[in-house]
Specification:
Layout lengths: L3 E4 L3 H14 L2 E7 L6 H5 L2 E6 L10 H11 L3 E3 L9 H9 L3 E2 L4 H8 L1 H10 L15 H11 L3 E9 L2 E6 L2 H19 L4 E5 L5 E9 L5 E8 L3 E2 L2 E2 L1 E4 L6 H17 L5 E8 L5 E7 L6 H8 L3 H9 L16 E8 L1 E2 L5 E2 L2 E2 L2 E3 L6 E5 L6 E2 L6 E9 L2 H14 L1 E3 L5 H8 L2 H5 L6 H15 L1
Parallel strand pairs: 1-2, 1-4, 2-3, 4-5
Antiparallel strand pairs: 6-7, 6-8, 9-10, 9-14, 11-12, 13-16, 14-15, 16-23, 17-18, 19-22, 20-24, 21-23
Helix pairs in contact: 4-5, 7-8, 12-13
This protein binds adenosine-5'-diphosphate (ADP).
Length: 455
């Protein structure tokens, strides 16, 4: 049924989708901005269409240009990747009403999950534990203070439309909260054109645990286990792994069943991720659902052997999931690190420019997902991800040794990257033991910054 898929994205994720399509025998159409004409996703696709100038809002975010490209090339389905229009329900519904297949969940599910306050309500109604917090959007600062006093400080103010770690503010007392609400509202208005915020209890030392889900149009939903994404900088993930050092088989089953219950309550019919915070007592709480493929999905592919993008495409085409929960086996341990064109010695400032020399690691148990090649010019217009480096080992200790080995093989010259920083981080006792929380990087980064300044 799906003969030709247009990928409304760029970079490594566009390549990732193209690779799945090639293996499925589906033709591909790349769209690209002017500056991306030489990108690998353009070279690897069967056809390509230039959809506008470099800024995202004049190309990758331009719905009419993308639909025109689909029309011209005769594509009959659209894969949005992640970022850009992937969680834009308006785009999803326009795609569907144009007679094209949308490779993602239904637009109303995207819309309702995209509103974090609404998502909390829905999940609570489905019996999924949520972090204590306000009932929906805050009407006033006084209401925020009232709710916070009732459940106790610290609290976190979050934008209902939030994403990418933006629009969040932690407050330790009423005074801080009175300042945090207007700041978070202003930030949310600027970033998401929606100032609405809500509050949650701020957990002291949680782990970020997310569950990968796959659903089809026949009411089936399975979970593919968890990913631990606790190592974060400013609420953004740096390293992801599966299984989580903090999750045993029993907890995995409870997390999985809870995530499936939540997804089934909204008739979820695609690939998606339910994010939880796990507290020190082993209790977990729903945080949000990402209604798209995620950057870190290959971690799960390595431990399950399942190609999540192929399953997502099959589900969109109306096929039934090809396996049952009981058939899934988790093998070994996988870790992903993100190598970015950023300068860790200068506050992780983006470092665009030409890649003068490139050597990517190889060997047993190594996977590289990257759109970068030697001579490639990293553009300042888009995110700074150069490559996702993944390793798979029989157990965590083999995966760790492999990761160190692979990172040491990685050589990228001409721009600054996070390779060395990541290697230093991987070698710390905290990462080696796996005893980390979402706050663990804060002190490591302080020491790192101090060392950088001392040079
Ligand atoms: P975004 O959609 O912007 O990524 P999330 O809601 O997924 O935002 O939260 C991102 C990160 O922020 C979490 O992984 C966690 O580290 C931190 N965080 C969010 N909510 C809380 C909370 N209630 N308590 C403690 N940390 C939180």
């Amino acid at each position: 049924m799906l003969k030709k898929i247009l990928i409304a994205n760029r970079g490594e994720i566009a390549l990732r989708v193209i690779r799945a399509c090639k293996e499925l025998g589906i033709d591909t159409v790349a769209v690209h901005s002017e500056v991306d004409a030489d990108s690998l996703h353009v070279k690897f696709a069967d056809e390509s269409v230039c959809i506008g100038p470099s800024p995202g809002n004049q190309s990758y975010l331009r719905v009419p240009s993308i639909l025109a490209a689909a029309e011209i090339t005769g594509a009959n389905a659209i894969h949005p990747g992640y970022g850009f229009l992937a969680e834009n329900d308006h785009f999803a519904s326009v795609v569907q009403s144009s007679g094209l297949v949308w490779i993602g969940p239904q637009p109303d599910v995207i819309r309702r999950m995209g509103d974090k306050a609404e998502a909390r309500r829905m999940m609570q109604a489905a019996g999924v534990p949520v972090i204590p917090g306000s009932e929906g959007v805050l009407a006033s600062v006084d209401e925020a203070v009232g709710v916070a006093r009732e459940m106790g400080f610290p609290v976190i103010v979050k934008a209902v439309a939030g994403g990418g770690g933006r629009g969040m503010r932690v407050a330790r007392d009423a005074e801080e909260l009175r300042a945090a609400v207007p700041t978070a509202r202003a930030e949310a208005e600027k970033a998401f054109s929606n100032p609405d915020v809500y509050i949650e209890k701020y957990l002291a030392r949680p782990r970020h645990i997310e569950v990968q889900l796959l659903g089809d149009k026949h009411g089936n939903v399975v979970h593919l286990g968890e990913r631990d994404c606790s190592l974060q900088r400013r609420h953004q993930k740096l390293i992801e792994e599966s299984p989580s050092p903090a999750v045993d088989a029993k907890l995995r089953q409870r997390l999985g069943e809870t995530a499936i219950r939540g997804a089934q309550s909204v008739a979820y019919d695609s690939a998606g991720t339910m994010e939880f915070l796990l507290d020190e007592d082993g209790r977990f709480y729903f945080m949000e659902m990402n209604t798209r493929i995620q950057v870190e999905h290959p971690v799960t592919e390595l431990v399950t052997g399942i190609d999540i993008v192929k399953e997502q495409i099959a589900a969109a085409a109306g096929e039934k999931l090809g396996f049952k929960q009981s058939a899934l086996r988790f093998t070994g341990h996988a870790i992903e690190v993100r190598i970015n064109a950023e300068d860790p010695g200068a506050g992780f400032r983006p470092s665009p420019g030409k890649v003068e020399f490139l050597h990517m690691p190889g060997g047993i148990g190594v996977r590289i997902d990257s759109h970068v090649y030697q001579g490639y010019e990293i553009s300042p217009w888009y995110d700074s991800l150069i490559a996702k480096l993944l390793v798979h080992g029989r157990d965590r200790s083999e995966a760790l040794a492999r990761l160190e080995r692979a990172l040491a093989e990685c050589l990228i010259l001409g721009i600054r990257t996070t390779t060395e920083f990541t290697l230093d981080l991987v070698r710390t006792p905290m990462f080696q033991t796996g005893d980390v929380t979402t706050r663990s990087l804060e002190s490591f980064l302080e020491e790192y910054d101090a060392a950088a300044e001392g040079v």
